[in-house]
What does this fold into?
Amino acid sequence: NSWPRNNPGMSVCLVSTCSLNQWSMSFEQNKRRIQQSIAIAKREGARMRLGPELEISGYGCEDHFLEEDTLTHSWEVLADILREGSTDGILCDIGMPIMHNGVRYNCRVLCLDGDILLVRPKLFLANDGNYRETRWFTRWQYGWTLQDLLLPALVTDATRSKQTRVKIGPAILQLADTSVAAETCEELFTPNSPHITLALNGAEIITNGSGSHHNLRKLDKRLQLITSATCKSGGVYMYANQIGCDGGRLYFDGCALICSNGQVVAQGAQFSMQEVEVVTAAVDLSATRSMRGAFMSRCEQVSTVPVVPVIHVDFKLCGRPAATFPAPPIDVRVHHPMEEIARGPACWLWDYLRRSNQGGFFVALSGGADSSSVVAIVGNMCQMIVKEVKEGNETVLQDLRRVVGEETYQPDDAKELAGRLLYTCYMGTSNSSQATHDRSKQLAAEIGSFHLSAVIDPVISALMALFVSVVKREPRFKAYGGTDPRENLALQNIQARLRMVFGYFLAQLLPWSRGMRGSLLVLGTANVDEALRGYYTKYDCSAADINPIGSISKEDLKLFMAWGAEHLGYPELANVLAAPPTAELEPITADYTQLDEVDMGMTYKELSEYGQLRKQHRAGPVSMFRALAAKWGPVSPLGLSLEEVAAKVKKFFFYYSINRHKMTSLTPSYHAEDYSPEDNRHDLRQFLYDASWTWQFRAMDHLQQEMQQDMKKRGQGTEHRKA
It folds into this structure.
């Protein structure tokens, strides 16, 4: 009987969820943050606390999960949490890896009063995109059944009742006044989510400890799934997540939530420099019972679902004072996509900087869109740090003092802080324009970076002289009489590569030259579309330590610059946006100026289309042609001929395939787009291609002919054709 045994009206309970900035394999600090979140939940009067997925070890341990040490250290941390009284008087849902019968599981461990109530393994694993959970874990395949899990001796010693075995499997905790069950991250996204069966078995509170990373425009989908989880079936849904960079390319974007009967009643921050954020709300379980009891078709379905095991626990969540009122529904906060670009990578960069113990960032600032976007993001990071310190974030202040090497440093101004953390240099050549020089100088001044301007022609000339002395031939630009395309390309590439070499030299010694501590992290400035097309020099300025925009499209960066000029206080971004993108690697003559989109033979907007079709829609050449024939072809507003569409698709796949090898050395980038071609984990494909694509292109040609014949029969294909 899940009804309160004393006063039926006393059905309001306080529950807490949280976002934790965990760090993979940093067990000491992870434990501290877990216990801090539990202490905050207790202080706020909560009787239940939910934490993120794999919060003890950190989600991003990857192949460290294969090591027995990782499992042992996770048990050691849990033993400390139990022994030290953290779970006294509060039901805690904690995430950690566990081995049972020689099989590793991604688990939730539900604890109370120094004992373990249940170990709940994950039923469905995330194994696409950035996720590789089946490499390290096995899903629970025994259905709705429980088994005995033998506890390590160190955990037995730590538990209050000296437990030697606990139950492992999916189950409902039947408390004295309500019922609680858990699901984990990916299970929410599956078509037949466990919460459906759990709710129909009477679970009134369902928890979800998650490790969900940021994707541009992804929060809406997550919110929709969470609210729909209780919209039809009623109930309370609690969502916890990691927040921050836990050691890799992903930024976990927090946004802890509590939802009741399809309405959000509490929400945490999506982008934050807080290491621990606890979200607490009072929820009325009588509203859940009323909603479920009035939904007659739901009542009919209750008897048709599998029966979930029940574990009885003599503990009450409810029984709050009569003056405790349920939290009302709130308006959900969803950031503008440009604000996501400003804040997500900024928080990721701050985590990387403070945890790598470096002295700041270096950016080769060219005055173009990409490098300007990167320094704007770092500038916003400085603004966020100053704001956090002013609001009393002691962790940020102490980390900042350690980074700058001053024990009493107090940041009051974001520009002054940028002068300590951000170093920029314009590396000009004889092919550079005064306009890009001036734009970089002005933008650096608006942000406050320590800015230098250098002319690297002497280094280029020295290398050219060395080459000529060895080879006895002198390559020339096309504009100066060069006849072989290899000459023109090599002369461009050497400029770009020397910028990388000089950039790293500056990054190591600029703080030394100013009497400041540490070295600098070099930031890459290549966007996702350039990576997809391969429109950059291998081991040029794209070769860096990390890249905050490497998974952001050029089209989004354009929108970001327009937004940033107004909202970040960097008006020079508008001038950068107005200038046509150019690499400035070829000589400027009276009748020729190098332009990116002309060089590439395709626009950045087209590249975004190709990227989304190739990765997100899993389209090869034929499928891509079919999709773009509908979108760009004769019967579309664009009105291209089928021959033109086919030529565009073939050109893209040719350049994609001959440049795919560059992805193997791509700088680790903040993940923001699902069509990222990053080779390390997200986009696993070969890097040596037959660039002729003979079979696929022949199939495309046949399809094109069939389309033309069919359109001719129906009299289509001319009415939208542009003159």
